[in-house]
Write a structure and sequence with these properties.
By secondary structure, the chain is an alpha+beta fold. It has two domains: 2-68; 77-106 and 121-177, Alpha-Beta Plaits (2-Layer Sandwich). The protein has four helices and four strands. Strands 1-2-4-3 form a four-stranded antiparallel beta sheet, with helices on one face. The relative contact order is 0.13.
Length: 184
Amino acid sequence: MKNKLVIFIIIVFIIVILYNLRPLYSKYSPAQNQLNTSCDMYSSMMDNFRTEDSIKSKRMDYINKINELNFRAQLSQEEIIFVLYTCAQKNSIYISDIKFAEAEYILDDGDIDIIESEEASVFQTMCVVAEFKAEFEQLLQFIDDIKWFRDICVMNLNVSTWEEDIVYAFVLMKFYVVPLVINL
């Protein structure tokens, strides 16, 4: 009986030792090391795919928000002329000249400092100087109509001559464009 008990204890002891040595074998086994490396690489790749998908979805959300705001995606002189003449016809104003400036137009009066943030530099801009002949109230109504557009900024109004009810004026406007470059 004692022998059977000792044999049973020895067998249990051997099983416990082998069971405890098994993690060490698994830990130092080359196949296990390769499996762990492959699992880590797969996990990293999945994180990259999730990040890429979230970036794509955020980009599409931003593009949809920009589209909801009705910003122009491209800027052409024909579009600008069309917008100006449409507003001019609505207010019975005669536009005698339209000048386009590719570079930033700088105000020389020194009273107003125009500071653009880094976010604003994402926009492409085109400055336009339009020469008008109209009644003063019509000109103000025209400017109100232009300011209704979210991508047009009236920067300056210069009145050159004022004869009775007729005003000869120059209006400096800046047209903004949000370029939608999609690299998905």
